[in-house]
């Protein structure tokens, strides 16, 4: 049995390329964010809401990307609904990018200490020692998101990569929403043409 993608011209190829770029970006975001959360949890702290939200959005979007591409490949994708969902994911990634990037816009990674020269460079060590002993910290075991990502260059560059990929996903989801509308018009036009030929 031979598998073949739908023959929908340049729009179909563009849709496939966009889904591939979205998938790679989302998997990268999941990996980097999960690494942050793992280090924070290992230090017996609660992960910041911004990282939990980012991981949730990225995981949901990855599942959505996989399911929609399978449906597209089989010619069963409801294109208008997909356009609306892509637009909704664009809004979600804008929120993620804005929330992650708000404290990062002025942060310069190159001025931070290298891992080898900073005795507090380990994420777990830093998180455990960076918060002063206050009533609030004892109760919530919360970690300041900005203080954690500003600990050293690798953490800074990693979170900036997540921020950059989130911004890229805003553009990719906006573009794929437009492509879905174009595909819907193409499929609708082809169906109408076939009906006229049969009539």
From TrEMBL:
The chain crosses the membrane at residues 20-38, 50-73, 79-100, 162-184. Keywords: Membrane, Transmembrane, Transmembrane helix. It comes from the Eukaryota. This is MARVEL domain-containing protein. It comes from Pseudomassariella vexata.
